[in-house]
Design brief:
The protein has 209 residues and is mainly α. It has eight helices and no strands. α1 packs antiparallel against α4 and α4 packs across α5.
Length: 209
Amino acid sequence: MAVHEQPHRRPGFHPPSWTGHWTASTSGTAVSASNDTHSVRAYAFASLRLVTGFAFLWAFLDKTFGFGHAASSGKGWIDGGSSANGFLNGVAAGPVESAFHDWTGETWADWLFAAGLLGIGIALVGGIALRPAAVVGTAMMMLMWIAEWPPAQHLSDGSAGMSANPFMDHHVIYAAVLIALVLASAGDTWGLGKQWAKLPFVRENGRLR
């Protein structure tokens, strides 16, 4: 008759293992934090997109209808005024001063300037076509930067220039913002960016996103 001895257990307290639980908890917390950070960043860029879009859209509306800010009441583009003359007449320095003065009063200049402001404003507010808006907006901002010519310390009439920086001004900042909005896909949050990207002609031509 064989006798089987039961295995002996060592006395003492054996604490439960928390390794698996701790790893899972830490991983879940990290994912949650990452998602929260992503959400905050998306909302921040969406907010930046909307306020920038309003700036462009308001510039178009004010110059077109004469709301009394950039264009006096009754002197808007729709009243026979000009959308671009106010800016072009103000060019007083830089290598393209005479060219900008020659464009004053030209119908094509008014249409291009107004269309640019309206198109960029609608694109940013709606979150659609951010890439074309960034290209057009950057080109417009660079032209306006050249027109104001921040490097000039004196205007063409000899008076002191008003530039506080030899390079950086709000036009450069606007251009940088437009490019950043594209890189951040800012139209996907609080905008129609995702729906716009699904349209057949946009899927076939990614430059329109």
